[in-house]
Design brief:
Layout (H helix, E strand, L loop, with lengths): L8 E2 L2 E2 L4 H6 L5 E3 L5 H9 L4 E3 L4 H16 L9 H9 L1 E4 L5 E4 L11 H16 L16
Parallel strand pairs: 3-4
Antiparallel strand pairs: 1-2, 5-6
Helix pairs in contact: 3-5
Length: about 150
């Protein structure tokens, strides 16, 4: 995998994925929202990273949203109290369609400075994990019948 220089630019932000980070976190693919991301996608792909678009509609985000909810409720998410991520979580809303599918929604940018980027990128990463992960098996129930 190629190294992206810390000073290289992708849109308005420097690229921060390096060989060291890719190895430390075992990055297998990067899920992305295609909106306004062509330059970043091309740079990461040229560096050898596998890029995969994540649909930002109900079909693409329903399962990651449901899984994130399960992870939060089971206290399997650790975010370290990061203030910006906490703010993004506070700003995000959930919209449900008539089929019961959910997706995150952001506040209107015309009337609000609130952002949900940390939540959106986390859901994209979770979508990539769900596509590649082995299905979890339910534990065998430990049922004991007394008096039978």
């Amino acid at each position: 995998m190629g190294t992206l220089e810390p000073g290289s630019r992708t849109g308005a932000a420097p690229c921060v994925i390096t060989d060291e980070l890719a190895e430390r976190f075992d990055i297998r693919a990067i899920g992305y929202d295609r909106w306004n991301a062509t330059e970043t996608i091309n740079e990461l792909a040229e560096a050898g990273l596998e890029m995969e678009q994540v649909s930002q509609g109900y079909a693409g985000l329903n399962e990651p949203c449901r899984q994130l909810e399960r992870l939060v409720l089971s206290q399997r998410i650790v975010h370290g109290g990061h203030p910006i991520l906490r703010w993004h979580v506070d700003c995000v809303g959930i919209k449900t369609n008539t089929d019961g599918y959910v997706k995150p929604v952001k506040p209107d940018r015309q009337t609000s400075s609130k952002r949900i980027d940390g939540v959106a990128s986390g859901l994209n990463a979770l979508a990539m994990h769900l596509l590649r992960a082995e299905p979890e098996t339910a534990p065998e129930p430990q049922i004991r019948i007394i008096g039978a």
